[in-house]
UniProtKB/TrEMBL annotation:
This is Protein FAR1-RELATED SEQUENCE. GO terms for biological process: regulation of DNA-templated transcription. Pfam families: FAR1 (PF03101), MULE (PF10551), SWIM (PF04434). PANTHER family: PROTEIN FAR1-RELATED SEQUENCE (PTHR31669:SF293), PROTEIN FAR1-RELATED SEQUENCE 10-RELATED (PTHR31669). Residues 1-11 have a biased composition (Acidic residues).
Amino acid sequence: MEGSSNEDDGLMQDNADLNGNNINTHQIALDGGMHIVEAENSNPISHEHDMEMAEPFVGMEFESEEAAKLFYMAYASRYGFSVRISKSRRSRNDESIIMRRFVCSKEGFHMKKDNFDDGKKKRKRATIREGCNAMIEVIQKYYGRWVATKFVKEHNHVVAPPSRVRFVAPEEFAHIEPFLGMEFHSHEDAQTFYYAYASRVGFEVRIRLSRRSTRDESFVMRRFVCTKEGHSSPYEENYDDNKRKRTRAPAREGCKAMFEVIKKEFDRWIVSKLVAEHTHTLAIAPSKVHYIQSESEVVVLAKSGGGVREKSAVGTSNTVLQCGDSVRECPNDDSSSSDQVPKDENRESFFKIEEDTQNLLEYFKRMQAENHTFFYAFQVDKNNSLTNIFWADAKSKMAYYYFGDAVTFDTSYKDNQNMIPFVTFTGVNHHLQSVIFGCALLTDESESSYIWLFEKWIAAMGRAPLSLTIDQNETLMRAVTKVFPDVHRQVNRWSILSKCREKLSNIYDGAFEAEFENCVNDSETIEAFEWCWNSLMDRYKLRENTWLHSIYDMRQQWVSVYLKHAFCTEVSSSHRPDSMNKFFEKYFNKKTSLLVFVSLFEQAMSSWAETEALEDFANMYTKPNLKMPSVMLKQAAELYTRSVFEVFQDEFVESLGYFCEKINDGEIVKYNVARDGGKLPNISCRVSYNSIEKKAKCSCCKFEVNGILCRHILRVFLMVGVRSVPDDCMLKRWTKNAKSGYVLDECIQYNDLCRDAIKYAKEGASSMEIYKVAKESLQIAYGEVIAAKKDIGNRCTI
């Protein structure tokens, strides 16, 4: 008997070994010509940086307990340990699991048995538990999602990440049945085979018994059984009569099916015991994915397939837009014809797994059935092969309604051929956090595919943005120009700076990096930028560098001082928008199934939404620190969010280091504003101030570009005695009330009511008494809504 539980009533200790459900890989060698699908991991997760990026955290949300388990097992495999279930808690209402605790397999200690002499030879039991405290605990919340409430990262033993990943499909074992005497090269190979066999036949497996050598503590026997083996142990023996009793839902039914292997000479493992019959009905085609752990490798057991099975799933030879159950054909745009941009066969194969494609389509259908504001579209080529997918949920639409004035189209995935071909439409909210406005899986990078994607995105969002930032790509730029002729277009400055780091790797560090980025990011005028650029070219002898020549020729598209004609959300040179590429590098490469990818991405979006909500809450009850007593700073602190206020306060403080020189008098007074004692004293910004309307405009156009007053205007305000920020200089999208007011989009209103209705249903169905109250109240509320609707309709007809 493994450790005991001291938890409250309702808490049970499972000690279910998930060693067979953790990611790791092995080379299987079975006699009989078995075929194994093997794929080397070209980017093994072995660096400390990748380990940190893949960590769980307290507050992380999951769609289900199964999703939480899979995530932690995947994390465990990357980190280098195995997992088991330690404790669970069930609901007193319906016996469903409401809490799970997953721990390292070395958690706890083995209980000491009483010493007695029965005349038999004793041998020391191998120690496999070392009191490790690493764990994650997830609890089901009232809104149905599972939240990580506890997380301990540290282990008290050595862990080592795996070095490669191999995918094994159950269909690969379709013609192989287990038999006595079957041989394997290792117990991991036997485990992989039996898990794949179980997945194909229709049952789940756990490890029942193990035996280790007393010499080196290596395994010499392993027994795998059906999860319904044995009987749920009654725990009425240890209870207090004064406590409420409940019956544990039976999970085991005495099934005898098992598969035991023992180690023989020459390190061969032989099947010594086998029971194939089950005492219960087997499931057909179970959908669980198994991750199997060993010391250095990862095996992922999943289903395989090829091609697209049904034309109706992804369309005919024309492009097909999928919106739930409705399918309508659109004119063929030849988005993947061979006479256009040649396809990357490696990326095209991303959609070749039939099971993945069908599961993804069904997932999108379910999402739209739950909420009709969910939008998705599929694109296929002439050969009926899936090429591109786009989707946007209600959260993305609502975020776009409030913060869709400036959008970045992020295609940074294309720099890494091992990543999922994922692109996003992103923006920045009022806390300077990244938000998602829509996503796509884009395997074809032709101009027509980009046009298709932009058109579907606009159809989902309802309107175009004020400005669109894209990566440096001629094909992409042509598509953007055709779809968004009136939208300001610019090239992503940070992507160019990243390429500079590669192109100029011999000097791009230390002093040059700081000077170069200051030149690009902090130049206040065009003259200042030109002076700094020429100075750098001369001092570092870069006049002949072709890369620098090329980006200088297109400086009007990416250097901030030239981009004064459209709004963007980059409020300071120190604020760099988060790239979604970092998130994908944590978990996703092209070996990740589509459904797992989309599900985990949905969880990540929920986590980001919760982060935004927490920041909203913090802004309600906390105030930022003022660096100096000022009426203007106090006013800004009351209205701006904390993140934006810090930017405003930096501008205010910097303004004190500038001096003003009046050029003329009159209704509109003009000033030259320059840095006091700067390197470029002759280069200044010109501020025009209307003394009657108390409005100011600066030649740097910072306010027009990002909606926050620049240091030059603030310096003039201080000089002329303006002590508070004028209302028209306080952009609402940066304030704490950015999301106030009515949302006119009917879809958004529908989504908001659906969320409240789900909460109402969960609470209202908790008991029969509460259900009656909830039902009666709902009927009254429904009647009031219908009456109000009729009243509004009558008023509109008068």
